[in-house]
């Protein structure tokens, strides 16, 4: 691929060219020159747009494909193709497939399906078996197979002792545990944030307390166990 990108603002805090508007010459997929003005006689494809910006590839930390089980929703091949066309070079894929991604074989399946793609696929394994919140899944085996984190997608871990055990266990191999920040006893069947808007629409609201209680509990467990925890935003 031979391309000349004209007048692009480079966004890369680690680069000497950060926030500068320059030309970029790419030959056979490799950046060969960055300068104020590049003129070439070769028949290279030229890209020139108003307000053009260039950055390193983006990372999406929460992607839900459908494969396996929900291929009509999205396949891994098409999902990675879409990610590439959207500027993403890596994605972390949630475990909410069918069956739930909760074993080393499932992780290997995802990794295998992603081979040969331009976008890196990083699987997130389920924290509990079938994401049911009862027993821990095969965390160590999934880690060895390539899982980067463990998370029951959009399901809070109600049992505090189970969360404690997951942090203690995953801490033995530097595993990352993710917690959905919502106390289901407080949120109930709410469908949106509890405020004037939910009342005026006649919809059941979820009070801020539901999130705050769960986060407070998990941060306390994190301090108690010395584990590694990430709390995604709702």
Description of the molecule:
- Helices cover 29% and strands 24% of the residues.
- The chain has 234 residues and is α/β, with parallel strands linked by helices.
- It has two domains: 3-55, Roll (Urease, subunit C, domain 1), CATH 2.30.40; 58-230, TIM Barrel (Alpha-Beta Barrel).
- Helix 6 links the parallel strand 11 (192-193) and strand 12.
- The mean pLDDT is 94.
Entry keywords:
13 strands, 4-stranded parallel beta sheet, alpha/beta, 234 residues, TIM Barrel, Urease, subunit C, domain 1, 29% helix
Order of helices and strands: EEEEEEHEHEHEHEHEHEHE
Per DSSP, what share of the residues sits in E-state strands of 2 or more residues?
15-25%
The CATH topology of the largest domain, please? TIM Barrel
Number of helices: 7
CATH top-level class of the largest domain? Alpha Beta
State the major sheet.
5 strands, mixed
Give the integer mean of the pLDDT values: 94
- The proportion of residues forming helix, as a percent range, comes to 25-40%
CATH superfamily of the largest domain: Metal-dependent hydrolases
The span between the termini is 40 Å
């Amino acid at each position: 691929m031979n391309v000349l990108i004209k007048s692009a603002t480079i966004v890369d805090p680690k680069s000497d060219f950060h926030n500068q508007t320059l030309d970029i010459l790419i030959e056979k997929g490799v950046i060969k020159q960055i300068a104020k003005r590049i003129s070439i006689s070769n028949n290279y494809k030229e890209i020139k747009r108003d307000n053009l910006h260039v950055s390193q590839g983006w990372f999406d930390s929460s992607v839900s494909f459908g494969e396996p089980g929900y291929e009509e929703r999205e396949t891994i091949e098409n999902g990675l193709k879409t990610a590439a066309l959207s500027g993403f070079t890596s994605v972390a894929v949630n475990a909410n497939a069918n069956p739930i991604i909760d074993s080393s074989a499932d992780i290997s399946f995802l990794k295998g399906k992603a081979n040969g793609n331009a976008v890196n696929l990083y699987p997130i394994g389920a924290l509990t078996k079938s994401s049911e919140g009862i027993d821990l899944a095969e965390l160590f085996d999934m880690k060895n197979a390539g899982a980067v984190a463990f998370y029951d997608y959009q399901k809070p871990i109600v049992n505090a002792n189970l969360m404690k055990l997951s942090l203690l266990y995953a801490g033995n191999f530097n595993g990352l545990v993710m917690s959905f920040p919502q106390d289901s006893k407080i949120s109930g069947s709410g469908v949106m944030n509890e405020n004037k808007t939910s009342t005026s629409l006649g919809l059941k609201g979820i009070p801020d307390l539901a999130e705050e209680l769960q986060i407070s509990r998990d941060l306390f467990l994190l301090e108690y166990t010395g584990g590694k925890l990430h709390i995604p935003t709702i």
